[in-house]
Amino acid sequence: MASTNRRLPPRQQLAAPGKWPAVGERAAVGPVGPWRVVVGGEVASPLDLSLDQLRALPRVERTIDIHCVTRWSKPEMRFAGVTLACLLDIARPHPEAKFVSFVAYSARNHSTSLPLADAIALETLIVWEFDGAPLPAEHGGPVRVVVPSRYFYKSLKWLRAIEVLAIDKPGYWESEAGYHNTGDPWREERYMAPQLTRQEMRAAFAARDSSGRDLRSIDARGHDLSGLRAQGALLRDANFQECRLAGAIFDDANLSNAHFAGAVLAGASFARADVEGADFSGADLRGANFTGASLFGVTFGAVEAGQSSRPAIADATTRIDAAGLEALVPLQAQLIRRLLACG
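RESULT FIELD:
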């Protein structure tokens, strides 16, 4: 276990053994007719490949550690497919080609991009097998991208197109979700820099009603925001450390990777919220409601030797359903079960 932990990037936790959490959409949308993958843009020989043609290309197998931006990691995942470099050797990029964009068959037309040189140097794969079997649909099957050494949102599910570009075209995850354009887990490049001005942040605090607003990466550290209404708000990477948030309502909000260490959250509601990767170390969660919330990668306090964060304060009045407990990594699940049994 110790050697595995040394491989983890900052603030990542190991997923439960034998489990690969399915994050985001669970199924592709399309195509109409047989699945095809096209390679186009700044290339001399565009490709339009059926799955059989794709699988006929030189097959490689790689064992890769994956790191989700919502703070869980899964080491030694065995994938098989073809290298992006192999496809590009056939398509022959033009000299002006500098970036590559991957586009999905999905409801939100997901896409993501990388510098072309990085994508090749990282040995990006186009994969159709996992652990010797066809790639499951909920994990991007029949064919997805796997980019080693980047957060896993760069590894696009349900691949339909590879676009070779002269100018970068940030994808859905970067332009809409606010994820970092590089996504290096060892540098902890999770999110873009905050865009709110100090005046905008003060106005948000004063209103005490941020329902439906986009407040990604807001820094509210130490403020008294008791009773805050933030239903459906976008609060990814928000900093609520040491805040007073008693009775706050975060129902249906996106709080992935939010920081709640030391916050007072007594009686707060996170019903159906996305709190994946959030840190509740030392937070007062008595009476808080997490029913229906997505808890992948959540931290409720340090559970291993050498770590220093305080455990959350929770008791039998803290509501976390069975699905939420099941989503936690094993050591965090053990910790919160102990806390919920108190009182």
